[in-house]
Amino acid sequence: MFIIGIAGGTGSGKTTVVRKLIERLPKGEVTVIPLDSYYNDSSNIPPEERQKINFDHPNAFEWPLLIKHLQELKEGHAVEQPVYDYITSTRQKETIHVEPSDIIIVEGIMTLHHPELRDEMDLRVFVDADGDDRLIRVIKRDIVERGRTIEAVIERYQRVLKPMHEQFIEPCKRYANVIIPQGGHNNAAINMMAKFIKQQLRDK
Known about the structure:
Elements lengths: L1 E7 L5 H11 L5 E5 L12 H4 L12 H12 L4 E7 L4 E9 L4 E5 L7 H5 L3 E5 L3 H16 L3 H20 L8 E3 L6 H17 L1
Parallel strand pairs: 1-5, 1-6, 2-5, 6-7
Antiparallel strand pairs: 3-4
């Protein structure tokens, strides 16, 4: 098994990098585990209080559960991945059954933040992008997919996203084996990663 951690700021192009990487790797041998699935369950908190939760802070995630699941997958055991509802900010009763596979990709803004989680990884990747480019992508996504106004998106970016990025996400670059500038547009870097991963699997 080969475990890859892919981190980067909101709107940096992580999802595109993951998609293009999967296209270049053996079919049926890649499992993606989103860090977002491991947000803490907030069902015990009143709905009006949930709106105050900072989802861009490390404390928003249940790190021990994610680490435990990765370790169980390494040992050849299937796990039940949580399902998180972004609308209600709660964990759902249903889960996603995940079987061990040759390649596991853990993807999320702070995938490289937690030291124990990093220790489980064979390759650590940081997807880098200019702050203005990330903001433009966030504006487009939040307006189209989440029905927010441009004013609300910019206010949240300035109040939460930007300071949390500078405090917790940007420093994770130092832990990366590979930094991919220009996100999903950097096909050369993605091609090199795919070749490296295939070689590592052959060597194992």
